[in-house]
Design a protein that fits this description.
heterodimer, A: mainly alpha, 2 domains, globular, B: mainly alpha, MetI-like fold, 13 helices, about 0% strand
């Protein structure tokens, strides 16, 4: 099939089919962005007239959205800090040192990616409920870090592997201490990876639903949980605007990672985004 | 922190040529000291993540397991598991397996066709298509599900298009039933399968296909005898992983399904949040966990079986 002469009919079929699948992936996102500017929130598509009303409503008096947004941002920031600390140390241990039981450690780090999130969330609920920490931003961030740190570790491992160890050795042989090597050599080279790890930790937490749902209380609700509650119980047309904002945050974050890779990367890896490591695919072949 | 010595320790191999002044004994002692230092450095750096995950990941799952085995008046019991396999709960369990199977099959077929199409595109186009696949993956699944709710409604875009095309029976009921759940969940799972399959397909040596064609094999034969066996491990991998991820999936079935599409994750949520039934929820969680382990074990076994088969093939 591949590598043979493609027929014209085959090509047209292929193009039509691929377009259909891409629409399947993109349409739910496009429809929300467009609808959020439309006058009839749940109505026809494309909308008949345009408005910014839903966005204004988000920040009107008595709206529950600003509090949820602030909580989500706080939790995501804490999660980013936690998972960067865990990620840098773990990646250093796994890539740049002799580690007994290395496979076991690596397996433990990746495990949260394949274990059903409901099981993780339930376990965390059982842990934090007796400590009456439900609804605490710290508890939610600690929970999100379980899900975000594997991604940070994978990105940072790939980054460290891409840095030529001989550069560090060369600096050390010329008398640079370990801290100087880290600050002057490793850190600048690892910058794009660090930004990617931070950004993906942030979005993982910002969009996370299940753990937040189990760990939130009546007054402390993260943005995704609030969106879910609105979709399931209330009717609040401004949820479309919130969803569009969530899309915007994700797109800006991805663009940031792309730009930093372009600027900072020395063209070692191609592609706009670090795909395999960031989608959270458990790389089973890796040891 | 000692500087020069520990920096030296990051060297992969000590020099093969011993320094003329060093005796062999001193050299090996130095080597051992360096290795020990490297190990200590590794343990020190691995400690935070290991401790963190033991406290916030392993221990909670362990306590879930204990809770699922505890009776209401103390003592040990399997009563919660018996409950999970009875009546409405059993039905929910079977629904979960059914929807996961339908979704992974559909994502596998669509993912196969798309990934295959991408391998035939020019690099620029392939990059753009993969961008359209990957970017949605990082947009909240909740938001994408909401997008599908808007699209699939009775007067949504999909039904309007179908009505305009005079498809008989339009508008269809596409929400709050299994069609809606499978469509929504598939769109969430598709990036995984496309990425996994694309990685495998890109690694296929095209010269093998050309060789088969040069020896007179037709398109279908080449596909069946050469291409499919080469990508089969990837297909199995993607299918099983997709199935595992679906098992514990909650958002889309909860928002786009009707009462007949309740999945185990919804049931767990309901038991914890509304019925305060933690033991039963724990048992269901452990069942999900065991199903996940079974899937991962299956992958491991298939992988080693495939490797053994290939080794025998090259040896003979």
């Amino acid at each position: 099939m591949i590598g043979l002469r493609p027929t014209l009919a085959g090509r047209v079929c292929l193009a039509a089919f691929a377009t259909l699948i891409l629409l399947f992936l993109a349409l739910p996102i496009v429809v929300i962005v467009v609808t959020s500017f439309g006058n009839d929130a749940f109505g026809s598509f494309p909308p008949h007239s345009w408005t910014l009303g839903w966005y204004k409503q988000l920040f009107a008096d008595g709206s529950k959205w600003p509090a949820a947004l602030a909580l989500s941002a706080l939790v995501a920031a804490l999660t980013t800090v936690f998972s960067l600390i865990l990620g840098v140390t773990a990646a250093t241990a796994l890539v740049r040192s002799e580690l007994p039981l290395r496979t076991a450690v690596y397996g433990l780090v990746l495990a949260p990616l394949v274990i059903p999130q409901v099981v993780i969330a339930l376990g965390l609920f059982l842990l934090f409920e007796p400590a009456s920490m439900l609804g605490s931003p710290i508890a939610i961030a600690l929970g999100h870090t379980v899900l975000a740190s594997p991604i940070a570790v994978m990105i940072l491992m790939a980054t460290l592997k891409g840095i030529d160890e001989r550069l560090e050795d060369a600096a050390a042989s010329m008398g640079a201490g370990r801290l100087t090597v880290a600050r002057r050599i490793t850190f600048p080279l690892a910058m794009p990876g660090l930004v990617a790890a931070a950004v993906f930790s942030f979005i993982t937490s910002f969009d996370e639903f299940f753990v937040s749902q189990f760990l939130s209380s009546v007054d402390t609700v993260t943005l995704p949980v609030q969106v879910f509650n609105v979709l399931q119980y209330d009717v609040d047309p401004s949820v479309t605007a919130v969803s569009a904002l969530l899309i915007a945050v994700a797109v800006v974050a991805l663009a940031l990672v792309g730009v930093v890779r372009r600027l900072g990367g020395s063209g070692r890896q191609d592609g706009l985004l670090p795909t395999e490591t960031t989608v959270g695919l458990p790389a089973g072949n890796e040891t | 922190m000692s500087m020069a010595g520990s920096a030296l320790a990051t060297q992969p191999q000590p020099q093969s040529q011993p320094a003329p002044t060093a005796t062999p004994g001193r050299m090996s002692r130095l080597r051992r000291a360096l290795a020990e230092r490297r190990t200590r450095y590794g343990l020190l750096n691995a400690a935070p993540v290991v401790v963190y995950l033991l406290i916030l990941f392993v221990y909670p799952i362990f306590s879930t397991l204990l809770l699922s085995l505890k009776g209401e008046e103390g003592g040990w019991t399997l009563h919660w598991y018996a409950d999970a396999f009875q009546g409405a709960n059993l039905e929910i369990l079977l629904t979960t397996l059914r929807i996961s199977a339908e979704t992974s099959l559909l994502s596998l077929v669509i993912g196969f066709l798309l990934a295959n199409a991408v391998t035939r595109l020019k690099p620029l186009w392939a990059g753009l298509v993969m961008l359209v696949v990957i970017v949605p993956h990082f947009i909240s699944a909740l938001v994408r599900t909401y997008g599908w709710i808007i699209l699939l409604g009775e007067h949504g875009v999909v039904n309007n298009v179908l009505t305009d095309l005079h498809i008989p029976g339009a508008p269809f009921q596409l929400l709050y039933n299994e069609i809606g759940v499978v469509i929504g969940t598939t769109s969430v799972m598709l990036p995984y399968t496309v990425l996994l399959l694309y990685a495998v397909m890109r690694a296929v040596d095209r010269r093998l296909l050309a060789a088969a064609a040069s020896m007179g094999a037709g398109r279908i034969t080449i596909f069946r005898r050469v291409y499919l066996p080469l990508v089969a491990p990837g297909l199995v991998n993607a299918g099983v992983l997709c199935f595992i991820l679906c098992l514990g999936y909650y958002l889309t079935p909860a928002l786009m399904g009707g009462p007949k599409q309740t999945m185990v994750a919804s049931l767990i949520d309901d038991q914890v949040m509304k019925q305060n039934q933690w033991n039963g929820a724990s048992a269901l969680g452990i069942i999900l966990l065991l199903l996940t382990f079974a899937g991962l074990l299956l992958l491991r076994l298939l992988k080693s079986a495939g490797e053994a088969y290939r080794k025998r093939g090259t040896a003979s």
